[in-house]
Design a protein that fits this description.
Blueprint: H1 13-42, H2 61-79, H3 85-102
Helix pairs in contact: 2-3
Length: 107
Amino acid sequence: MTVTTTSSFLDTAVARLIALLLAGLIGYVLYAEWGSQIMATVQGEPISLVADKAPANEAAPALDACLAKRVGDVEAMKSDGVITEAQYADFKASAIRLCRVQNPTRP
């Protein structure tokens, strides 16, 4: 009785070398992109998933004006007692959506 084995490419040393090089390349890309955050985390600094301060939207003054007016109107309705707290959240979200649709920031 003869046992024949067929070896695939994935079982060769060349395939393992390619996998090692690929893993090294991925590690390098990750470190190049997020190296400073990784080192800060290793040194004990807390991770911030949200920016500390919202960037100013200098490219879209019309969007800023629309948001100020619409959200201001919604806040005035809330302070006057016209709408409830639950309605306030819905109205504010609708106002923001409307302004973003009317004033897209991307060309």
